[in-house]
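To illustrate the input format used throughout this study, we show a single complete record. The first block contains the structure-token representation of the backbone; no residue identities are included at this stage. The design step must infer an amino acid for every position from geometry alone.
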């Protein structure tokens, strides 16, 4: 099994990512979940991770991460994910407790005590991961790679050029991108191609059962929000972008994706803050530091996701 740590800010698509990860627990060994501040505050992301994972019957340590970015004020995305982070969908109170170890300590100890190298999946701002690398550089050789949802080679969703996770904490992106650890970036270039149509979302409901029902409610809440969002690209009101799901799907089914090794830097300040500058054509002549995904086999992606919902529903 592939040993992984998941750092997340649930968040609707984060919950779908967790669904995929825990449905595939025959392949992925999730050793730890840590919560970052992003879509909503740390109090809420941690609570949501615990309620959602309790609900799907996962048994895993869930540690609390940092309250917000290194230098910027935390900007949340309650307009997209709702005030609670899960739209209007309610889950029972969590059975899983908050870990006694703070996220950075839990990550450090999980990585250093593991016989195998650990893969980190990060689907929010990179604050926790960057703090770990700064405070404990000794973990670097023990990290297999970091699969991150964030960034974009072309176009943003927070500004014309910046994707949300990169925009919230660009300095953290800088630290991670300079770390020398292999990085796979599922930016908007690929996640906008990893969409689920309304008709396909209806199929979630057809799976039947309480979990499928909740998953359907979550994704359709997200879609309703998109319908009311005036500034997005074509089709935004008819499809659901499964951004965070890509970071786990890539680990499970890398053959569904195409990407390119590129040199990538991030803009830290000013009107381009959070823009990830991807050197596709090797203009800078600098060594690649990121594997940038740009294409996905959408039909297969959706089929794999549906299987995951079926598995969790049947538990
Ligand atoms: C990213 O921003 C968040 O709102 C989503 O959960 C995803 O991680 C997409 O830009
Ligand atoms: Ca997220």
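Output of the design step:
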């Amino acid at each position: 099994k592939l040993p992984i740590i998941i750092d997340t800010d649930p968040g609707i698509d984060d919950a779908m990512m967790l669904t995929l990860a825990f449905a595939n627990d025959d392949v992925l060994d999730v050793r730890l979940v840590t919560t970052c501040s992003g879509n909503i505050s740390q109090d809420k992301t941690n609570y949501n991770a615990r309620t959602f994972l309790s609900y799907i019957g996962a048994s895993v340590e869930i540690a609390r991460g940092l309250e917000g970015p290194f230098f910027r004020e935390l900007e949340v995305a309650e307009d997209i994910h709702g005030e609670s982070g899960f739209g209007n969908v309610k889950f029972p109170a969590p059975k899983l407790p908050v870990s006694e170890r703070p996220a950075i300590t839990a990550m450090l100890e999980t990585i250093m005590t593991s016989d195998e190298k650990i893969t980190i999946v990060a689907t929010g701002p990179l604050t926790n991961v960057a703090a770990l690398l700064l405070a404990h550089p000794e973990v670097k050789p023990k990290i297999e790679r970091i699969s991150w949802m964030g960034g974009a080679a072309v176009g943003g969703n927070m500004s014309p050029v910046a994707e949300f996770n990169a925009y919230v904490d660009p300095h953290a992106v800088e630290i991670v991108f300079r770390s020398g650890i292999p990085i796979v970036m599922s930016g908007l270039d690929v996640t906008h191609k990893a969409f689920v149509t309304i008709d396909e979302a209806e199929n979630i409901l057809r799976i039947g059962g309480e979990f499928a029902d909740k998953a359907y409610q979550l994704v359709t809440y997200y879609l309703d929000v998109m319908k009311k969002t005036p500034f997005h690209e074509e089709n935004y009101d008819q499809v659901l972008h499964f951004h965070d799901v890509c970071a786990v799907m890539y680990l499970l089914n890398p053959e569904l994706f195409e990407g390119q090794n590129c040199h990538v830097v991030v803009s830290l300040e000013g009107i381009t803050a959070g823009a990830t500058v991807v050197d596709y054509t090797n203009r800078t002549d600098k060594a690649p530091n990121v594997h940038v995904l740009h294409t996905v086999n959408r039909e297969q992606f959706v089929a794999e996701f549906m299987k995951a919902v079926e598995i969790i529903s049947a538990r």
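Structural context for interpreting the output: Residues 52 and 239 are 23 Å apart (CA to CA). The longest helix spans residues 210-228.
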